[in-house]
Structures are given as structure tokens and as C-alpha cells.
Design goal:
The complex is a heterodimer of chains A (695) and B (168). Chain A has 695 residues and is of the alpha+beta class. Chain A folds into 5 domains: 142 residues, HPT domain (Four Helix Bundle (Hemerythrin (Met), subunit A)); 149 residues, no CATH class; 54 residues; 178 residues, Histidine kinase-like ATPase, C-terminal domain (Heat Shock Protein 90, 2-Layer Sandwich), CATH 3.30.565; 139 residues, Beta Barrel (OB fold (Dihydrolipoamide Acetyltransferase, E2P)), CATH 2.40.50. Chain A contains 23 helices and 23 strands. The relative contact order of chain A is 0.05. In chain B, the strands form 2 sheets. Chain B has a 6-stranded mixed β-sheet with strand order 8-1-2-11-10-9. Chain B has a 5-stranded mixed β-sheet with strand order 3-6-7-5-4. The chains are: A alpha+beta (695), B alpha+beta (168). Chain B: It is found in: Cytoplasm.
């Protein structure tokens, strides 16, 4: 029976990290003073399952630490302790520590024991101090359910006296239940009196050591509600006769009790027999409300929408195969159009169905890879909270559109740039509270994140209502660093553009948060690499806004196919501004070399694709071919091609899988006839062309 | 199939390798058959800009993009016309950055031969159009001399842009 537990480790870690994320999110939503019991429940369940899991897998440090957390949470859950900012902070730190510990276990590294011990001590201290709510809780909000605390402090009485008759069936042990554990657990939630009923015990020679002959009558004085008591016997369900009855507590004064216990006051008549709990709960004997409470109680977390874990590799394989299918299908369609005769009609209608199905299949597979951007956004509430705390600023984070979906590959790469932008907004954007007050703004600054779909791309905005970009300071800094000439005059947009240059930072003081000047240029580069753009809008004194536009996926691109000589190339639609035909005389020569033409509001150089790629074109006369005005990295060029062929969505394949990077080419795709067409990398192409001109 | 595998195992056990031989002009070359992915007829390729002249372009090989190298051009032999009889051998090379597939254009495929390890002789410094660093050795098989190619050395740098042997 040697099961290698190690095989479950990965799943455990993955689940735990996810659970910790949800715990963190719940903690951040937790309102000091008026906590929602449901949130505390969520948090508690996470801690509980991590504790259980790590104990099972022998990660005793994690289990021990989580146990302390759980104790604290249990106090919160039972309303014996108030949720204060201090407590939330402690719990957030605990999330970090648990994450660190699990990560250390995962990588088989040593745990930072000191840090763990320190925090564990703090937690224990917080638990110990729970009876001085005044000292521990400077909570400003009036607490509605504050009643139990003084009741608890004065300790005149408890809420309930539960009389429990617990008569296990002989097979109780077979299912791994331990009555001792249950009794111990009961003794933890209140004052327990135990009476053993050993009448059924046979003589020693007849005793079967694997059967349970004992029964207990227990009396429990506690604040805990019925479902808590019931919960202790959860696992024994079906293995015992259990009766839980409430008896009047032998103290007259108990006015606040009803508030403390979420369950309604039960009458002695309200008996739930767990052994057949289901029917009992379904048709409550006398008190519908009470029965409902029992039924709803524990397992809210178990009902998560059906989902499975699939490795991205498998999805990529699926994507590849579907891509192939699309190609084969279009080959068949082309072939099918050549058939004649009476079966041809049937063939074509079959092919049309095939095409529709294949498209749907492709879209579905694409959707599998799409995730809501909340995966990236979820880290920000915590980050903003920590940062603003450290900087002494009041910052509120507003996130909208966090269900906007985008491809996983894009998601993985957008995280860091966004972190940087949000950090900048908090650090540089939002002013200190007194500055804000002096400027007539609310003391609490707002940082907002917004995501939405726009055309075939996703736009993410990061903004703040802070000071905005200071043009004069940017200019001064840029001159100091010789990024621009002393007398150059720049438009607003050009000035804002400066902050994206390497080695530029206007923070008066370099903090460890931001200001080293390595940031914005990296942000822009990362976004460029994804095929996206970033722009800045800013008003001095009102705030700034960074607008990032990204492709939804890196796997597919909308392209325009163009012909040059015998070759076909794909130009990403997003880079194309306009296609036009030049008339004779519209082209001017600069210094007898470069050709330029007037387009909208400026001169645009002509780049002859056949020259850059060394091809034999159909024509070298500019007016006989077509000019496609494309833009890359802010520069426009007129790309001279023979002809435009058509627009299509193409699946991007890497040239680097079997070959190497080629300048001016971002990848390749397979056309309907099975031939390969190269996809142009417009910014790269412009660079190559400029170098050729300069040489 | 099973027989073939068994034969290979026998051959390997006897210290011999199976080689696919092909011709370029009058010369016969051999490559380890375990490196051969498939053999297919000539079809037009898509050119790649800025590639070395012997890298003709890329082909779609069941969904992956595979570069095609003209071995005649690689070895500075007289250029031959591509006809439907021209053959592309798809090989895989081990490069420092992982496995790469590529196709070589040759005049024709001849045979699969068994070459015993001790039949392979080191190549002299002259006599072939190929610089000897790309030749693992020479083998005489039924009166013909076969040049055994070290394709990792020969093609690796071309298709990956990373030199296998910095000194070379």
C-alpha cells in the first residue's frame, strides 16, 4: 500500500497557490469593522485546506503555521475577535509567508524560519489580545455585531447548551473515524462534559478490536451554533446515531445571544439526526428556518464551476493541428471548385459545412487559450495597498473590465509592464495627501485600471488623478541628459515621448519603488515586442493616462497579402495606414537618391520591397505598382509592391523553430495552397531599409 | 517494420550503421539513416531574404516551416536544374539550441547501406569538394567510395545562425 505522495505534490502546490490568491483577494475585500461572514468563511476554508494538505504531505512547518492562522480566523469567524486593519495586515503577511513556504517546499529549498516564527508569534499575540478589543481595535466604524464581545468579556453565560447523544455504529473505525478526535474538537469550542456509555462493551475474548462498542452522552456549553457542532460529526455521517438537542442555558440573562449566533434559536424539539440528515433537512419538522440553516451551513466552497487543468503544451498542439486542418480544408475548397457534374454540388455543400465547422473549431480552441485579464489585475489591489502604506499616501484602486479576455501568451508578457505603470502612478502620479488637499483635490487619490476590447485588439488603460506629467521638468531633465538639443522645440506629444527614452527618470529622489530610469523604455519595448503600442495623455495637475493597445493573441494576425514578383508576403493589417497608387510626377528625389512622396501632411519615403529583399519584381515603375503606407515605431514609409492580393487571418508560425531570425520578417504562415508566405515585420523592415539608404 | 528495427539493432550491435547514400554529380555521400525524416520530390520553395545563397528558402512540411539547403551550392558544385526528379531529403540536426529539421536538395537518392564501424577511414585533406571538417570519414562500399557527412557541422551553423564549433 505504498502510495508515492510526491506525485500529488504538484497538484497540491498549484491548488494552494490558487487558493492563496483567492484568500488574498478576500482579505482585501474584507471591511474592517463590518466583515462579511461569507468572506471570512472563504479565508478560513483556504487556511484549513492548506493546513490539511500540508500535514498530509508532511510539510509540518507549513501545517503548524497555517494552524495558527486558522486559530485566528476561527476567532474572527466566531465573532470573538474583531476584524481590524492590523489583523488584516497580519493575515496578508501570512499569505505571503505561506506562499513563500510552499514555494520553498516546491523548490526543495530551506524555509526562512525566522520570518515564519516572527509572524507566528505576532499572530498568537493577536489571538491572545482578542479580549481587549478597545486596545486592539481602533476601528472607526461602529460595529453592528459588537454585542458578543462584551458578553464574552464578562463571561456571564454562553449562548447554547447542546446535549449530544453520540452512538457510533460498530463499523465507525472502518471509515477512519476517531471518536476521540471529535470529542477533543468539541472540547475546543466550549465547555464539554463527557459521559461514557460502555454498556455495549463485550467481554475481552469476544471483543473485536476493529469495532466500536462505546457511546457517549456529551453536554457542551458553547457560543458555537448548531452547524458548528454538527460539523464536528461531518465525517461520521452514516456511521452513527447522532442527536443534538438544545437545552436551556442555566443562566437567565442572555439578551445578546441571538446576534452572536447566526443560527436561529433552536427549541429542544428541533432534533436533527445526522444518520438520515438529508430527509430530515428536506422536510423540517417544525421550524423551516432552523433546518435550512443546518443544510446550508458548511460546504459552500465545494461548488466551483466544473473545470479541468490542461497543460498549455497540449493546447498548443491542438492549435497546431487545427491550423493544419484549416489549411487542408482550404486546399479542399480550392480543389472542390474545379469539379463539375452532378456530384460537384453535393461536394461543394459538404465542403461548405466542413469550412464552417473548422472555423468554429478554430475559434473554440482559440477561446480555450483566452483568459480574463483579472489574472493580471488581481495582483494590483495588494500592491497598491502595500505601496500606498509605505509611501504614506491614500490611494484607491479602481479596476474595470477585468473580465476582458485575452490570449494567455499576451497575458504572461503584459504583467510586468503593467506592474511598472501602476507603481509609477502610485509613486510619482499621486501626490501626498497634504499636497492634494492644498490643490483642492480629495485626499485619497485614485489609480484606475481599465481594459476593453476595441476592434481586434485589447486596450488597457492605467491612469491616475495625480499631478500629471510636468512638461518643463521633463524638458529640463532631457536637456541635462543630452537627450535633446538645448534649443529644440517639441510638441506636447514629443515631450511625453521623452519619458520612454532609456536613462530617463524625473523622480527627484530615486526610491526603491521606482525612479531608476530603467523603467519606461523597458515598458515600451515589452509592449512593442508584443506588437502593441503605448501612448500617454496627461494634464498637469489633473493626472495622466497610459493607453496600451495589444493584439488579442500572438497566434493569429489579420494580414493583407501582397505580391512582389513570384513571392507572396503578408503585411499585418494593423500596420497599414492606406494603400494608394502613385501617379507619375508625384515622387520627388532627395539628393538624387531617396524617393519621397507627399502623403497627408508630410513627405514619406518609398521603400521598394523588391530591393530590400533582393527579388525580381513585375515592375520597377512606381506608378505601375502599388504603394502601401505602413507605420512602425512612429515612422511611416511607403512600401512599394506589385499588387495587393487579399485580406485573410493567418496563423503565425515561427521561422526560428527550424531556422533563425530574419530581419524584416516576423514569421511565416501557410497559405491555402500549402505554400509558405512570410509575414513582414514592418518596424524591422523600416530599420533594414533605413540602414540600406544610409549605407 | 519489425524486421527493419531488428536489423538496425543487429547492425548497431555489430558496430555498424545504416547510411542513406545519395549522389551529387559523380560523388556519393552518406548520412546516418536515423537522421533522415523523409524523402520527398522537389517543389518550389519560398525565398528567405538575407539568407546565404545555398539556403534556397522554406517549405511547409506538414505544418512546420522547414528551410531547404542546396547541397550542390553548399559544396560549390556546378548548379543543376531543379526537375521533378530532384529530391529533397529532410534531415534533423542537433544544434546547441535544440533539434532543427531542414531539407537538403540532392541529385538523387541511391541506396541504404550498412557500414561497419571499422570500414570507416579518416578522410585525407584533399580530394573532395567538401572541406574535410564536414566529413566524418570515408567508406568503401562494393567498390564505391562513400563520403559520410557530419551534418551537424555542415548545416548546423547555417540554419541556426549559431556556430557549433567557434573555431571553424
Amino acid at each position: 500500500m505504498a502510495i508515492d505522495l510526491a506525485q500529488f505534490h504538484d497538484a497540491f502546490f498549484e491548488e494552494s497557490f490558487e487558493a492563496l490568491d483567492s484568500m488574498e483577494a478576500a482579505l482585501l475585500q474584507l471591511n474592517p469593522g463590518a466583515p462579511e461572514p461569507e468572506l471570512i468563511g472563504t479565508i478560513f476554508r483556504v487556511a484549513h485546506s492548506i493546513k490539511g494538505g500540508s500535514a498530509t504531505f508532511g510539510f509540518s512547518e507549513v501545517a503548524s503555521f497555517t494552524h495558527t492562522c486558522e486559530t485566528l480566523l476561527d476567532e474572527l469567524r466566531a465573532n470573538r475577535m474583531q476584524v481590524t486593519r492590523h489583523v488584516t495586515d497580519l493575515l496578508l503577511k501570512s499569505v505571503d509567508v505561506m506562499r513563500d513556504m510552499l514555494r520553498a517546499q516546491q523548490r526543495k529549498e530551506a524555509i526562512d524560519a525566522q520570518k515564519v516564527a516572527d509572524l507566528q508569534f505576532d499572530l498568537e499575540l493577536a489571538i491572545a489580545q482578542k479580549n481587549q478589543p478597545a486596545a486592539a481595535a481602533p476601528a472607526p466604524a461602529p460595529v453592528v455585531e459588537a454585542a458578543p464581545a462584551p458578553v464574552e468579556a464578562a463571561k456571564p453565560a454562553v449562548a447554547h447548551r447542546w446535549r449530544i447523544s453520540f452512538r457510533p455504529y460498530p463499523q465507525l473505525f472502518v471509515h477512519g473515524n476517531d471518536p476521540l478526535r471529535m470529542i477533543r474538537e468539541l472540547s475546543e469550542i466550549g465547555e464539554l462534559t463527557v459521559k461514557l456509555d460502555g454498556n455495549a462493551l463485550p467481554s475481552l475474548e469476544q471483543l473485536d478490536p476493529e469495532s466500536c462498542y462505546l457511546a457517549w452522552d456529551l453536554t457542551l456549553d458553547t457560543d458555537a451554533a448548531r452547524e458548528v457542532v454538527n460539523g464536528v460529526f461531518d465525517w461520521a455521517e452514516g456511521d452513527c446515531d447522532l442527536k443534538i438537542e438544545e437545552e436551556a442555558v442555566p443562566v437567565a440573562a442572555q439578551p445578546a445571544v441571538a446576534v452572536a449566533a447566526p443560527a436561529p434559536e433552536a427549541k429542544p424539539s428541533n432534533v436533527v439526526n445526522i444518520a438520515d440528515a438529508k430527509p430530515a433537512a428536506a422536510e423540517p419538522p417544525h421550524q423551516p428556518a432552523a433546518a435550512a440553516a443546518v443544510e446550508v451551513a458548511p460546504k459552500a466552497g465545494a461548488t466551483d464551476g466544473g473545470s479541468i487543468r490542461v497543460s498549455t503544451e497540449k493546447i498548443d498542439e491542438l492549435m497546431n493541428t487545427v491550423g493544419e486542418l484549416v489549411i487542408t480544408q482550404s486546399m479542399l475548397t480550392q480543389l472542390g471548385s474545379k469539379f463539375t457534374g452532378h456530384v460537384a454540388e453535393q461536394l461543394r455543400s459538404g465542403l461548405a459545412t466542413l469550412e464552417r465547422n473548422v472555423r468554429e473549431l478554430q475559434e473554440s480552441v482559440m477561446r480555450v487559450r483566452m483568459l480574463p485579464i483579472s489574472f493580471v489585475f488581481s495582483r494590483f489591489p495588494r500592491m497598491v495597498r502595500d505601496l500606498s502604506g509605505r509611501l504614506g499616501k491614500h490611494v484607491e484602486l479602481k479596476m474595470t473590465g477585468d473580465q476582458t479576455e485575452l490570449d494567455k501568451t499576451v497575458m504572461e508578457k503584459i504583467g510586468d509592464p503593467l506592474v511598472h505603470l501602476v507603481r509609477n502612478s502610485v509613486d510619482h502620479g499621486i501626490e501626498m495627501p497634504d499636497v492634494r488637499a492644498a490643490a483642492g483635490k480629495p485626499q485619497t487619490g485614485t489609480v484606475f485600471l481599465n481594459a476593453y476590447h476595441k476592434g481586434g485588439s485589447i486596450t488597457v488603460e492605467v491612469g491616475d488623478d495625480g499631478g500629471g506629467l510636468n512638461k518643463d521638468r521633463i524638458l529640463k531633465k532631457a536637456r541635462e541628459r543630452n537627450l535633446i538639443g538645448a534649443n529644440e522645440t517639441l510638441t506636447d506629444d514629443q515631450i511625453y515621448e521623452l519619458i520612454f527614452m532609456a536613462g530617463f527618470s524625473t523622480a527627484e529622489q530615486t526610491t526603491d519603488i521606482s525612479g531608476r530610469g530603467v523603467g519606461m523604455d523597458v515598458v515600451r519595448r515589452n509592449i512593442k515586442e508584443l506588437g502593441g503600442t503605448i501612448e500617454v495623455k496627461s494634464t498637469l495637475g489633473k493626472g495622466s493616462r497610459f493607453i496600451i493597445t495589444l493584439p488579442l493573441t500572438l497566434a493569429i494576425v489579420d494580414g493583407q497579402s501582397v505580391a512582389v514578383g513570384t513571392e507572396t508576403y503578408i503585411v499585418p493589417l494593423i500596420t497599414i495606414i492606406e494603400s494608394l497608387q502613385l501617379k507619375q510626377g508625384m515622387v520627388n528625389r532627395v539628393a538624387g537618391q531617396g524617393e519621397v512622396f507627399w502623403f497627408r501632411d508630410g513627405y514619406v519615403p518609398v521603400v521598394r520591397l523588391h530591393e530590400v529583399f533582393g527579388l525580381e519584381p513585375r515592375t520597377t515603375q512606381l506608378h505601375e505598382g502599388l504603394i502601401m503606407v505602413v507605420e512602425g515605431e512612429g515612422r511611416k514609409v511607403g512600401l512599394f509592391v506589385d499588387d495587393l492580393l487579399g485580406q485573410q487571418q493567418v496563423v503565425i508560425k515561427s521561422l526560428e523553430t527550424n531556422f533563425r531570425r530574419v530581419d524584416g520578417v516576423s514569421g511565416a504562415t501557410i497559405l491555402g495552397d500549402g505554400a509558405v508566405a512570410l509575414i513582414l515585420d514592418v518596424p524591422g523592415l523600416i530599420r533594414v531599409a533605413t540602414q540600406r539608404l544610409a549605407a | 517494420m519489425t524486421n527493419q528495427v531488428a536489423a538496425q539493432i543487429d547492425a548497431a550491435a555489430a558496430g555498424s550503421n545504416q547510411m542513406l547514400t545519395f549522389t551529387l554529380g559523380d560523388e556519393t555521400y552518406g548520412v546516418d539513416i536515423l537522421r533522415v525524416q523523409e524523402i520527398r520530390g522537389w517543389q518550389p520553395v519560398t525565398r528567405i531574404p538575407q539568407a546565404p545563397s545555398h539556403v534556397l528558402g522554406v517549405l511547409n512540411l506538414r505544418g512546420s516551416i522547414v528551410p531547404i539547403v542546396d547541397l550542390r551550392m553548399r559544396f560549390n558544385l556546378q548548379h543543376a536544374e531543379y526537375t521533378p526528379l530532384t529530391v529533397i531529403i529532410v534531415l534533423s540536426v542537433q544544434s546547441p539550441i535544440g533539434r532543427r529539421d531542414f531539407g537538403v536538395v540532392v541529385d538523387g537518392v541511391s541506396d541504404v547501406i550498412d557500414v561497419a564501424a571499422n570500414d570507416v577511414k579518416p578522410a585525407p585533406e584533399f580530394g573532395a569538394h567538401v572541406s574535410t571538417e564536414f566529413i566524418e570519414g570515408l567508406a568503401a562500399v562494393s567498390g564505391r567510395m562513400v563520403m559520410l557527412l557530419d551534418i551537424d557541422q555542415l548545416i548546423g551553423a547555417d540554419v541556426t545562425g549559431v556556430a557549433l564549433n567557434p573555431a571553424a
